[in-house]
Amino acid sequence: MEKKTLFDKIWDAHVVKSVEKGPDVLFIDKHFIHEVTSPVAFLNLEKRGNSVLFPERTIATPDHNVPTEGQEQTIKDKLSRMQVERLRENCRKYGIELHDLGSEHHGIVHVIGPELGVTQPGMTIVCGDSHTSTHGAFGAIAFGIGTSEVEMVFASQCIMQAKPKKMRITIDGELGEGVTSKDIILYVISKISASGGTGYFLEYAGSAITSLSMEARMTICNMSIEMGARGGLIAPDETTFAYLKGKKYSPSGKAWDDAVAYWKSLKTDEGADFEVEHHFDAADIEPMITYGTNPGMGIKIKENIPTGADLLGSNKKSYQQALDYMGFQAGEPIKGKKVDYVFVGSCTNGRIEDIRAVANFVKGKQKAENITAWIVPGSKEVEKLAHEEGLVDILKAAGFELRQPGCSACLAMNDDKIPAGKYAVSTSNRNFEGRQGPGARTLLASPLTVAAVAITGVITDPRELAVADYAGV
Amino acid sequence: MAYDKFNVLSSTVVPLPTENVDTDQIIPARFLKATEREGFGDNLFRDWRYDSEGQPKKGFVLNDPTYQGKILVAGKNFGSGSSREHAAWAIYDYGFRCVVSSFFADIFKNNALNVGILPVTVSPEFLDEIFEAVEKDPNTNLEVDLKRQTITLLATGKSESFDINPYKKANMQNGFDDIDYLLNLKEEIVDFEKSR
Ligand code: SF4
To answer: Would the CB atoms of A144 and B177 count as touching at under 8 Å?
Structure first.
């Protein structure tokens, strides 16, 4: 029998037709939409006189541009308001399920999909957002698409894609204390580079991956795109099934048993072929931080900023441009650098485990005076849990500011912007120039590192604060 | 979206030798708030092009009248980052029909083809040669021939062939897009859905 990878199994089961010498017509099980990349798709759909073929397969939420304060009121920014209203109108018109601002399941699209149990193993999932790769944590093929493709999914529930190549990243061993899944992925990207995954779909494997919680797995798959890969997935296992059991859209009764039986078959056959394989040892991974303007520019916090010599084939000029933007010098230590803002949130690390980790770490402490600290839950559900578990009280006592759910300072489309020239240590996924506001300087790190930085006010390895403070995630 | 057919494009070029030009540079997120497709060209490379007062920044290539044309030539790993098709729209809206680099990010390449921009991947050596030739003479022309799949630096006559999927190529030549194709398959798709 032909040996197949997990990716092959799911992909092949969704090919409606293969165009000769062309792409595959790929059937899409679930389609997530938000206010920013959908309006033009709806507009063109209408212009061509088409309709939404399977509206029940699309689910919507406004997240990218929404304010994180005063969500009960009308959105002040006119353009943002128009986009959100357009989303509401379109959902009404085409019968698409909408999780609107303030409602029970509102939140960042990649946070609510799993929470609702919409995301399930074996599915194909797309969204007009590159971090759709998050859903790969469940053993689904999930990736971001452009607006033209959003329109295709509306009109035909399919997109046309050439099958990508496959790469497996295996990480075996045990993670050290104070090392989190965010550190794993920042480490992997620093090794493979911000473009090293281009043309590939990734599978993450190995004992360091399978021992992670679902939320930690989502953090890893989320950042697959930061290597240039379309997406990354992890074979579903008991952790996956336990997470999904009882969720709103998870199957139940006999259907659940059938589903689990099928999901158990979703793994890479022994001996199946990957074009590229990478192996890493979990023991090598330590708390990481980025120092430049793409997510591949990451180092261990204890290390110095690389000099030009050890670059991953990048040219000197672009490297220098990145350091100049950040206000750093090649060869100097990153530890001890003064920071102005910390941001805990986004679809990478805005889930309840992340907020727990930060709250446990800062409990009974005070943020440093020079730090402005924002916590933005990834969803209403996360916000609710954070209140119920008393985390909000702990965080407020430590001087953190809690905001309402949304993408917020991850991409700064709303008012949550880091001022020009200021340094932000952020749990989000992109440190591009201006990503968190024009002129903002972003350093990506884990929630634990962000918590440590909030307390000391400078770049800090979280392990250097009392060991008893570790949340151990 | 229907777009102009692409056959042969001969044009002067705009050089942007920076590597890893990401989609947040091509079009910053704060300019994604429109509900229509037009007008994004005004904010193409916004934060490199204008200062915080909205004044053009000297030294950025789009503000330099020496360099004009329908072909953007950029450093490797162009278009990394977000899936925002707005990046491709902005490039098209500004007037570019072709982007040349030694390496493209996946989603950007897909989006570009879907909106009628031809992404042409050349060898790193040829890319350097183009940059050098343009620096020497800003009136240097590049000729991109889609049918023959060649790109030629007219000044030196140096030419390379480039790859493009035959299906996508036919689409570009005819100004078609995938939706036309998919709509014709509707019955098959509906049957496929039923079987799931
Ligand atoms: S949180 Fe950031 S990365 Fe995630 S969907 Fe929102 S903008 Fe994109």
So the answer is: no
Neighbour-count burial of A437, counting CB atoms closer than 10 A to its CB (0-12 exposed, 13-18 middle, 19+ buried): buried
What does the pLDDT read at residue B1?
53
Q: How deeply is A316 buried, as exposed, middle or buried, from its count of CB atoms within 10 A (0-12, 13-18, 19+)?
A: exposed
DSSP, collapsed to helix, strand or coil, labels residue A48 as: coil
Q: How far, in Å, from the CA of B25 to the mean position of ligand 1? A: 16
Predicted confidence at residue B36, as pLDDT, reads: 87
Compute and round to an integer the Cα radius of gyration of chain B: 18
Q: pLDDT confidence of A100, banded at 50, 70, 90?
A: very high
ipTM score assigned to the predicted complex: 0.92
**3-state SS class at B5:** coil
DSSP category for residue A316:
H
Q: Rounded CA gap, B178 and B183, in Å?
A: 9
- Closest by CA to A434, choosing from A224, A294, A299, is A294
β-partners of residue B174 are none
Taking the CA of residue A413 as reference, the ligand 1 atom at the shortest distance is 7
What is the tens place of the pLDDT at every residue in B142-192? Answer: 999 999 999 999 989 999 999 999 999 999 999 888 998 999 999 999 999
Report residues whose beta carbon is within 6 angstroms of any ligand 1 atom.
A 63-64, 108, 110, 129, 131, 346-347, 407, 410-411, 428-429
Sheet holding B71-74, edge to edge: B118-121, B98-101, B71-74, B8-16, B141-145, B150-153, B158-161
- DSSP per residue over B93-162, as a string? HHT--EEEES-B-HHHHHHHHHHT-EEEE--HHHHHHHHHHHHH-TT-EEEEETTTTEEEETTTTEEEE-
- Band (pLDDT 50/70/90 cuts) for residue A473 is very low
pLDDT of residue A470: 45
Among B3, B16, B53, B83, most A C-beta atoms within 10 A, so best to mutate, is: B83
